[in-house]
Fold this sequence. Notes:
Distance between the termini: 25 Å
Strand content: 25-35%
Amino acid sequence: xxxxxxxxxxxxxxxxxxxxxxxxxxxxxxxxxxxxxxxxxxxxxxxxxxxxxxxxxxxxxxxxxxxxxxxxxxxxxxxxxxxxxxxxxxxxxxxxxxxxxxxxxxxxxxxxxxxxxxxxxxxxxxxxxxxxxxxxxxxxxxxxxxxxxxxxxxxxxxxxxxxxxxxxxxxxxxxxxxxxxxxxxxxxxxxxxxxxxxxxxxxxxxxxxxxxxxxxxxxxxxxxxxxxxxxxxxxxxxxxxxxxxxxxxxxxxxxxxxxxxxxxxxxxxxxxxxxxxxxxxxxxxxxxxxxxxxxxxxxxxxxxxxxxxxxxxxxxxxxxxxxxxxxxxxxxxxxxxxxxxxxxxxxxxxxxxxxxxxxxxxxxxxxxxxxxxxxxxxxxx
Length: 381
């Protein structure tokens, strides 16, 4: 249950490597995450210690966690540097093809129902309730006893920290609608939710069958209930200027990794999908596959983004430039492609991307148009 809820809170396009996977660590991406977390841009992006722009590791351990104060989800990855990079690179390259890498077969899993809703101003008010779309209530809430007037039930759900939250679910109004009332204002206040944040609800059916209604739904045959949140924008914690300096902070970020590489010891890194502008721990096969695509100026591409209500959207564009994004990392392929997007948009999208973030796209560029739907997007890859 914890893993399913964590994944919903992280986002539908976020992937976390598994134990035993071979991955590349990109230090420039790690620095970008620190910049986003501390709300500081480092003055220089030099390549310290003669540090390589990518390092091959094996994943030794993965822990999915959440910050107790902000509920920000993050994956704590324990990595071990690969001693024989050349042999492993050859193996990765041999396995890669231009087609998508097939997903590993999965075993049958118990049935789950979930929804993610972006909060309106009314939803985020501590003086009101939370309006649930009827299709979400029908799919995810245990059935109400419609003989009661009005039909009501108490939902008891746990968050990622194991804290129980009680919500009074009622079906009323003209037209009739599903509402979470009692307990909702406490949840909003405790989580410091604002309009634009998202509420995640998960129902896990233990016996793969829906049960009869119950006035107090906390588990058993009705299944376990879980709740979580996703921030529209991370509420940055004030960091005293004395604790982080522009020139030393990214050196500190990389020092531990450099020490692990030189001593052959394990290295622990926190990957924060809400904060990180782009994945900086990338599967070896995915990286090697991107090299086989031989991107060049003028090539068309498509890229996945995450939009409102956690729905995937794709944007297309053209590669207009190639080369290192920072002079201190001349050989790096991190954000080595300068791009022009087909659609004019009020949504911020990167001017530079990495080869493993995109896929070739063969259609000609459409006429320039404005993209108004789903103003909140996060780049994936």
